[in-house]
Amino acid sequence: MKQLENKVAIVTGGASGIGKAIVHLFIQEGAKVVVADLNEKLGDELIDSLGDSNIIFVKADASSAEDNKKIVEVAIENFGALHIAVNNAGIGGDSATVGELSIESWKKVIDINLNGVFYGMHYQLPEIEKVGGSIINMASILGQVGFANSSAYVAAKHGVVGLTKTAGWEYATKGVRINAIGPGFIATPLVDNALDENALKYLETQHAFQRLGRPEEVAELALWLASDKSSFVTASYYPVDGGYLAK
Ligand code: NAD
Q1: Distance, CA 1 to ligand 1 centroid (Å)?
Q2: What architecture is domain 8-239?
Q3: Phi and psi, residue 140, nearest 5°
């Protein structure tokens, strides 16, 4: 039997990179998936490439509470229940010191990467509680350690880890497990577009494997956390970082 047979999942930021790899794996494992993303073109391409009736794309902004409500409504209207949510949408933001970073840049990153996770869980939890399930929030190694010129991103990801630990405790006895994933640097458009070749080469050396991770390697951890195989796991942070944090 497939691991997510008869399960309904939401994946935000599911049209690219890590989210897209998670969507592919969840569909392969039998889930029905609502993909939510701001990028309609990438979303439509993903739906066309999969050609599966168990997948729906919703254009939605993760930083909008209203849109997060709408994503849950789409899942319920089309698939009748919600068991799994992956709050994955995120941006890198501008590279600048705390003194130089604009207030708008700070707010934008916090709005998408942190507030978006709260809004998502706020609307997902009442539905998931009815049937039992799992929420997976996409944090980062930068939810555990600092990184120069990335204060908003680092603060948001630390916030996601704290939010996950708290919600995990609140809902453990209500049938919902809530965990955070902490990827190292993964080869996706987010990283490729933000960094030049030298920076990428340097970052490769910061992982014990001397390479960046692949989106599919993060998706495998998301599948395990989404499935019943991780039944005694909640309120935790799981690295998939090629040894980055151990250095
Ligand atoms: P990506 O840019 O490939 O994909 C991110 C997706 O999120 C895109 O499809 C984008 O359109 C969507 N998105 C952006 N803002 C949105 C919004 N406001 N509402 C809805 N969708 C929005 O990036 P990725 O590397 O796959 O990143 C996915 C998640 O993983 C992010 O939360 C990121 O912070 C986290 N992460 C990435 C890395 C990495 O090295 N790539 C490392 C650690 C954590």
Answers
A1: 31
A2: 3-Layer(aba) Sandwich (3.40)
A3: 180, 165
Are 150 and 97 within 8 A, CB to CB? no
ipTM for this model: 0.99
For the chain, list the strands marked E by DSSP. 8-12, 32-37, 55-59, 84-87, 133-138, 176-183, 237-240
Q: What is the pLDDT of residues 26-42, one digit of tens each?
A: 999 999 999 999 999 99
pTM listed for this prediction:
0.98
Contact assessment for residue 93 and residue 193, using Cβ atoms and an 8 Å cutoff: no
Domain boundaries, the chain: 8-239
* Residue with CA nearest ligand 1 atom 2: 190
Q: Is 91 in the pocket of ligand 1 (CB under 6 A)?
A: yes
Residues 6+ positions from 54 with CB-CB distance below 8 Å: 27, 31, 32, 33
What would the pLDDT profile of 211-223 be if each residue is shown by its tens digit?
999 999 999 999 9
